[in-house]
Amino acid sequence: MKSLIERFKPIAGFSKYFHVGLNVLLPLFVFIFIRLNFIELAVFIVILSKWRMFSVKPRFWPANLRANSVDIIVGLSIVIFMIHSSGPTWQLFWALIYGLWLVFLKPANTSIFVSIQSLVAQLLGLMALYSWTSANTLELTGLTGLICFLSARHFFDNFDEPYAKFMSYTWGYFTAALAWILSFWLLFYGTISQPTLIISVLGYSIASLYYLKNQNKLNNLIIRQFIFIMVIVVVAILGFGIYKLGDNITK
Question: pLDDT at position 7, please?
């Protein structure tokens, strides 16, 4: 006859479904608070969902914050997208995206999915940042560098890169400098800013090359192809931006 512990052992499996249930409810609560115009509560519940970061001794808090920074960036970005959405349909769409992130993408821990997490967080974070119309040049520069640094650190830590800290700071500094330069003629292509497009193209290309090198699949032909495509896309973005800027001046 099974012992009492063995008999109730399967119940432990429900913790997984309970966690999934909370991840499903979080986007729903965020959607409800946004609809009720309780913006502060929506932000608070996103931060509160990471309460386990602070359930350890304070000396571990910085490491936990860095480890969870990508998830926080995505959550706060979704809140900003919901605020700027034109109606409940788009707000529900962003709530669905947040739910997919929490249930499927965030829990994945393979190198390819962790890489995707970093790229998604950087893209959404930059899109949300540059939709903040009241931000000044200093805020755009600093927050761009911070978002890119945290995303890069999440990416490089996935590969046990010995120079992860240095490479992440380098990427953060480079993107901050690029944001500062482009902020003097900030242009938008629809809802996406020029800095977001350029940084995303450069970041995706560099991350792809690093990933292929880590998987021993990189060769000179692939490097040349990536560099060629990257240069063409960036030049096209800048060229269209200059044309758009000149067109606005003549008007």
Answer: 45
Task: Please count the helices (runs of H) and the strands (runs of E) in the chain.
Answer: 10, 2
| CA dist., res. 241 & res. 3, Å (int) | 71
Measured CA to CA, the distance from residue 134 to residue 132 in angstroms comes to: 6
And the tokens for 83? 């605020």
Mean pLDDT of successive 10-residue stretches along the chain, which has 251 residues: 44 56 85 93 89 78 86 95 91 94 91 94 96 84 96 92 94 96 85 92 94 90 91 86 66 58
Q: How far apart are CA 11 and CA 15, in angstroms?
A: 8
Neighbouring C-beta atoms of residue 238, cutoff 10 Å? 15
CB 43 within 8 A of CB 51: no
DSSP assignment of 83-101 equals: HH-SSHHHHHHHHHHHHHI
Rounded-to-integer distance, Cα 64 and Cα 58, Å: 10
CA distance 36 to 85: 14
CB 117 within 8 A of CB 128: no
Distance CA 125, CA 113 (A): 18
Overall pTM surpassing 0.70 (yes/no): yes
Letter for the amino acid at 169?
Answer: Y
Residue type for position 238 = L
pLDDT tens-digit profile of 139-153?
999 999 999 999 999
Q: Which helix (H) or strand (E) holds 189?
A: strand 188-189
Q: Are 126 and 196 in contact (CB under 8 A)?
A: yes
C-alpha distances (whole Å) from 157 to each of 16, 70, 115, 147 are: 26, 12, 10, 16
Beta bridge mates, 192 = 189
Q: Which two tokens stand for residue 204?
A: 């995706």
